[in-house]
Automatic annotation (TrEMBL):
Pfam families assigned to the protein according to its UniProt record, in alphabetical order: NUDIX
Keywords: Hydrolase, Magnesium, Metal-binding
InterPro entries: DDP-like_NUDIX, NUDIX_hydrolase-like_dom_sf, NUDIX_hydrolase_dom
Record-annotated Nudix hydrolase domain positions: 1-127
GO cellular component: cytoplasm
Required co-factors: Mg(2+)
UniProt-recorded name of the protein: NUDIX domain-containing protein
Amino acid sequence: MQVAALCLDGKGKILLVTSRGTGRWIVPKGWPMPGRTLADAAMQEAWEEAGVRGRVNQSSLGSYHYDKQQDHGFAIPVEVRVFALEVDELADDYPEKDDRKRRWYRPDRAAELVTESELKKLLRALPARLGHQA
């Protein structure tokens, strides 16, 4: 299992980052961390991958699945639990700034850009769930 932060700007936009390996658009995600809740681990990933500081909701928005490619040419199935994170600050200097691009998108456009079908569905349902206009 992994955890992901769905970074929201308060106006209904979502922050996507590029993956380091393939350059495809994703939400910041990573592995659970000892001593942290799943939501707090997702918030740490958002800082490392996107330079985000903010407030994370401890309740999961949902989850999606994908096949994580391994160095030896095979893939393992991974469930990713997604947590909403309200962005308060977007830093210019953060750990992976040289490895990734980041960009804000409306949920419908973000859904078109991500690969995982369950994540697409979660992104498309987001405006109604959060009370924003799409």
